[in-house]
Inverse folding.
């Protein structure tokens, strides 16, 4: 592995402005992500996880509604402040996103094959046989009948199949970095495991760097190399996954870990984070 990280983020900040009101959504966010590595960003909703990832490729509103500061370098090239034409070549091709709620992220009026093919045509113009690229992308995510799924509309697929289609769309352009934003939201536990196993296999086979955004420490332990915990827009803890989960230093991190349901726990209900952090 190269000594220089594939993605290097330093002191990233995101501020939203509406009239006279200013909201700091993220501040001082820094991390490194190497090829083939997985970094999990964990925290409650509203902690700044998603906005930080969207800021990397200019997917937030333009100034003055939103101001992004700091540095984010992909293979040594600065992304923050990059012009829109250049960013459009990075999105999908170098950094791809899997958004939560695939049922609302997929376009309901186009079939799956068209949507994956559109990404291929946009980011891989050298690919002459788009249909073959679409089929390969669906096969990569272990879809048994890629022809049928390519002809299907999103509402004709289950939640798990929709998520696989979203992953196929992201992988079709062979990105260097995959941002998986709550990829198991609204899926039952069996399908959650299938999706996480799929991402683990893709990471191993393609040596793809993955930025996993989640509120659930339960899916992180066997998947991520490193974890950073965010609260109120700041990183409160960062380290190797085993170290953070085995010996968390921050009270907030301990609270998140305590919320993981475990077999054999004799509790009438799950401890909430608010309760876990309450002074004793």
């Amino acid at each position: 592995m190269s000594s220089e990280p594939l993605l290097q983020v330093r002191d990233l900040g995101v501020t939203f402005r509406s009239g006279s009101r200013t909201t700091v959504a993220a501040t001082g966010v820094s991390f490194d992500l190497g090829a083939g590595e997985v970094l999990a960003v964990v925290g409650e909703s509203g902690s700044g996880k998603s906005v930080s990832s969207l800021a990397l490729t200019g997917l937030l509103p333009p100034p003055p509604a939103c101001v992004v500061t700091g540095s984010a370098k992909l293979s040594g090239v600065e992304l923050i402040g990059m012009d829109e034409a250049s960013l459009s070549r990075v999105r999908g091709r170098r950094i791809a996103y899997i958004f939560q709620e695939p049922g609302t992220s997929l376009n309901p009026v186009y079939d799956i094959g068209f949507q994956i093919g559109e990404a291929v045509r946009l980011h891989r113009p050298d690919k002459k046989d788009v249909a073959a690229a679409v089929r390969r992308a669906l096969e990569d995510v272990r879809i048994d009948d890629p022809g049928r799924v390519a002809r299907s509309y999103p509402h004709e697929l289950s939640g798990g199949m929709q998520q696989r289609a979203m992953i196929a769309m992201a992988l079709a352009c062979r990105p260097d970095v995959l941002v998986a934003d709550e990829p198991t939201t609204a899926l039952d536990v069996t399908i959650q495991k299938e999706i996480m196993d799929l991402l683990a296999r893709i990471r191993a086979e393609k040596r793809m760097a993955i930025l996993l955004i989640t509120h659930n420490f339960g899916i992180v332990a066997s998947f991520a190399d490193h974890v950073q915990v965010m609260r109120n827009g700041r990183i409160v803890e960062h380290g190797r996954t085993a170290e953070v989960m085995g010996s968390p230093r921050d009270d907030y991190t301990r609270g998140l870990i305590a919320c993981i349901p475990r077999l054999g726990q004799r509790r009438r209900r799950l401890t909430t984070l608010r309760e876990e952090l309450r002074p004793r």
